[in-house]
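User: What would this chain look like folded?
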Amino acid sequence: QVQLVESGGGLVQPGGSLRLSCAASGFTFSSYTMHWYRQSPGKERELVAYISPASVNKNYADSVKGRFTISRDNAKNTVYLQMKNLKFDDTAVYYCYAPRLGSWGQGTPVTVSS
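Assistant: Here's the prediction, encoded as structure tokens.
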């Protein structure tokens, strides 16, 4: 069955960095666009970034442009989200999503706090 397992979240100070990973299994990962979403307490889940199967197309929410980088390693069935210059407003649970499959991971929490 389809599985998406996120990791790499944690507590970081403002201005710090984290790299999130999402390990995929149960489908042909290299054929699917992959998304990262996030959800903060009391807010709607929002799209952070997505990447096409061969990494040709990438897109970012305006709030993270220039600070976050999405990438993937199809040989490892893994999609990454490198986050730099983190801000308080980046605090959220981050989810990996395969839209064509309608599958979500369990999420990994990121807390930006001093």
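The radius of gyration is 13 Å. If you want, I can go into more detail on any region.
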